Known about the structure:
Radius of gyration: 36 Å
Number of strands: 31
Shape: globular
Largest sheet: 5 strands, antiparallel
Helix content: 40-55%
Structural class: alpha+beta
Number of helices: 41
Amino acid sequence: xxxxxxxxxxxxxxxxxxxxxxxxxxxxxxxxxxxxxxxxxxxxxxxxxxxxxxxxxxxxxxxxxxxxxxxxxxxxxxxxxxxxxxxxxxxxxxxxxxxxxxxxxxxxxxxxxxxxxxxxxxxxxxxxxxxxxxxxxxxxxxxxxxxxxxxxxxxxxxxxxxxxxxxxxxxxxxxxxxxxxxxxxxxxxxxxxxxxxxxxxxxxxxxxxxxxxxxxxxxxxxxxxxxxxxxxxxxxxxxxxxxxxxxxxxxxxxxxxxxxxxxxxxxxxxxxxxxxxxxxxxxxxxxxxxxxxxxxxxxxxxxxxxxxxxxxxxxxxxxxxxxxxxxxxxxxxxxxxxxxxxxxxxxxxxxxxxxxxxxxxxxxxxxxxxxxxxxxxxxxxxxxxxxxxxxxxxxxxxxxxxxxxxxxxxxxxxxxxxxxxxxxxxxxxxxxxxxxxxxxxxxxxxxxxxxxxxxxxxxxxxxxxxxxxxxxxxxxxxxxxxxxxxxxxxxxxxxxxxxxxxxxxxxxxxxxxxxxxxxxxxxxxxxxxxxxxxxxxxxxxxxxxxxxxxxxxxxxxxxxxxxxxxxxxxxxxxxxxxxxxxxxxxxxxxxxxxxxxxxxxxxxxxxxxxxxxxxxxxxxxxxxxxxxxxxxxxxxxxxxxxxxxxxxxxxxxxxxxxxxxxxxxxxxxxxxxxxxxxxxxxxxxxxxxxxxxxxxxxxxxxxxxxxxxxxxxxxxxxxxxxxxxxxxxxxxxxxxxxxxxxxxxxxxxxxxxxxxxxxxxxxxxxxxxxxxxxxxxxxxxxxxxxxxxxxxxxxxxxxxxxxxxxxxxxxxxxxxxxxxxxxxxxxxxxxxxxxxxxxxxxxxxxxxxxxxxxxxxxxxxxxxxxxxxxxxxxxxxxxxxxxxxxxxxxxxxxxxxxxxxxxxxxxxxxxxxxxxxxxxxxxxxxxxxxxxxxxxxxxxxxxxxxxxxxxxxxxxxxxxxxxxxxxxxxxxxxxxxxxxxxxxxxxxxxxxxxxxxxxxxxxxxxxxxxxxxxxxxxxxxxxxxxxxxxxxxxxxxxxxxxxxxxxxxxxxxxxxxxxxxxxxxxxxxxxxxxxxxxxxxxxxxxxxxxxxxxxxxxxxxxxxxxxxxxxxxxxxxxxxxxxxxxxxxxxxxxxxxxxxxxxxxxxxxxxxxxxxxxxxxxxxxxxxxxxxxxxxxxxxxxxxxxxxxxxxxxxxxxxxxxxxxxxxxxxxxxxxxxxxxxxxxxxxxxxxxxxxxxxxxxxxxxxxxxxxxxxxxxxxxxxxxxxxxxxxxxxxxxxxxxxxxxxxxxxxxxxxxxxxxxxx
Length: 1304
């Protein structure tokens, strides 16, 4: 917050040349409202303050807060009024610097609530510090905190001795609170200026729009702030315009981009200064260096006032220099501040009012020099993990170190590609160069010295980096003590993959062979080490790696517990490191490498090993490298499937043995000897049955089930095995796993999409669904072919469209990567815009502009333009020769070669027309995959005369980073426990709340914001189920902000969070806000996946209901008719979801007075209910009653109209009663649409409902029963009754915490 110094008092000290400045602090009166809200939130977190003394001072709290701040209070004095005064030493200053006469008068030191809140915020910060915290970590925490973020040059002292930054706080005996501000050096001054510059830049939204430096966008407050509270019923049907923009209405084909980032009209960007840079008077002359001058700064304030500031060893002050006169003497007012922010706050009103908004969570510059990344990362992993506090500290340290490593690796990779780093081998070709920057090793994803020639060349080298990263992630997840992996990050930037790794101590030394385990020459020479065997054996069970034998160069058997390429190195620090983990997972035999370039053909002796299931699909297929591997999810699914088979075989075998024992009971001898003989016989039979079952399923042991895979099988790089029999067994096991992917996992994937338990919206969510089922993305061609064979394939049109779009975008990414490697740096904008025009433009005029080179002189006359030729840039560069026809031919070839899918289209226009792929969605996918940043404007793709993109539309290119994702183990365990509690219903929801709150606390400590959003989402839905709508709304708002800032404003998870936030807002009475949120969700859905998607059906149903509640019937009918069309397509015309859509339309038509249309739609709903659930079902009976009521109302309306036109006298016919829906009724329908119904437990007597093998309830089983959870809380029970009970194939999702209708 902004603090204002009312006046200064200079108190004499013992030293005549040193004085202590005492500052009377109080808050600024016109505090910003945003700061007041932050203060209030911090006060809510802080413990209550003790009562005030008679003098009005909070002595105990004041003393404790001063101790926390490290400011030791001086002895108390009494002023003339008798009030007690406490002196605090803020910083020391040279007395000779100050002008004027020193006085010894004192003034009362006052604190108000906001000052105490600042101190309490520091108290909460330091309360998280343990005895194992390093002084350097505490230093960084203080720099990151809002109160002290502008200070960089300070240290922690114990008495007169300064504590080293590498010292743990708990190792200092008698440690007490205390701090001191240090003198600056030139290095400290430059670091301070850079840090202050980062803080000032955090006020600008440029980094947030770019998504860099820890900044990101969130537009939730644009739709939620400034809206009304609960709306009264009297306001319904008023003249409020609820109509959305035209591009949100159903049927609109326009997809503008400008609404993606809305701008508030009253938004004012905060600015502190206009200019802050180094002065031209640098460096200081020798005589001024003798006075402590370090740097000179030039400042232009918001009031257009030019200031010159001196950075000295003691701090910052104004000097008398101008742009033309050098006068370094202090200027008036003579103010010396240890922080530049403090000085600017005092001398410029604009900086003072803006300092409150400094964002300390934005970009952070490290004040330390080169860091020993390996020691930090390995040291953090070696921290003790016995208690919860130790594990939290360990996870926090690992997370912080890993995050810093990824940030530095990203900046280093960009610097390497931009040519800002000197290579270690400058004489070698560019693709073979290696770099060291900030103690990190950088290499390029090319085949250096033909190391991957036998595996696929550059394609194998590019894929090996990602395979190695997955291996590092797998071993890091196992987290075996004593086994160390290297910190690794992959950065794809401007078409080149950069691998950033931490240097192993001693790895650059060439005086000795450091590889003591594995092979360094593709299996020609193999070595082993007992220490590595012991460590790797601990990980083999979790990773399903078989311990096996290979032959070395002397035909001697060598035992390994990993792939032969895995290298074990003992570093100079004595730690065991494993490198080159690219074959951690077993190979995928469906995709094999063939160096000849012809169609893949297996040997005759190996052809019989290929399962019939793989042959039916045409496998094995040729792949461009031999590093294709199976995913860990597939291995776990295959092991689970084999374990079920193993159990079945053991059970059947024991049953047969029991039948034989019954026949032998009569021949068995009596006595103890006979019993012992019988027991031995049974034991032998049991062992035989288990052994036969183990051999049948491929277990590595005969005594129990233990399925593992040999990663060196099918490696054609010189690896030899001593036993061919065991090798054949492992080869068969791998073929069975590959066949299981085709016969089990892909059908399971399509079933989950068919019943809509998985509803992908774009390429990223489709990839996530594929990976969850253990299917690699290279199987997209198989998935597309299998889509046509599924019954009801029309209901999977959105999957087909997204899959084709993913094949296209990934093929474009492969081509674009090679395309950029031939582009010179000065032509990136022209080359990228030309590539996008060739891909997405409908115009045939995609040739480059004649003046695409900015340095080329523009022709002024039309005659010269017509006679002149194009510049050399357009004709000489290879990228400029690309045409739309050539590009589309390459895309089709790439899709056929990599994904084995044939695109039967001649251009992008044909794809758009045939499959419904949106160009704007393709642009989004390609931009995210390649790092292209385009200008935010409305692009016209259908123009036949002008290209879509120009050079100025390409704003920038950003690196695409892949790295390890670290999570808190205890928080993950608590999260899983909470999900199990909810799913099993063995505890009350209160206990679940406690578990999730603990998870939330741990997630906040570790700043894992994606997991924080998941936990907030879970808590919000549980609160809504328990009818705590206020808490649900607050939690869901925070979840939406996290999703927007972490995943992106247009991510499918953000869209889902917006949808349920709209539901919570409607339940809270803020209906207009709910409507705006639904409009936002629909607009984002249209951008991401288009209008032909099941998610749009859900949004349109909710929009129709909300508009129905707001009495806007015409607009409601538009959305409900759109929802009806989509439900008929994706759920079927005879589904219960389709019946529900008809019922919603009937209610709106009834409220409108159109009884004929209402009867038509309700009759359709009645016929569906009658066929699906029978005439005696509750839903059918209710629909029948509603039909009778509508018929009566229609008859009354017709009689009234006839009576009016007949002009006859008679009894008055009562007019029909128009049904006006109440908000509780609308909310109940919204909950029904979203699959949430809250019913008190005491109302119903419940009975178990039969559930099939997939935990889904069939309509016939639910006809007379409701879903049941044993031992559930006695407060609420989630049930399906009436219509919801009859909805077919429902399941309970512990991830979503609500009943979700999968298939209607």
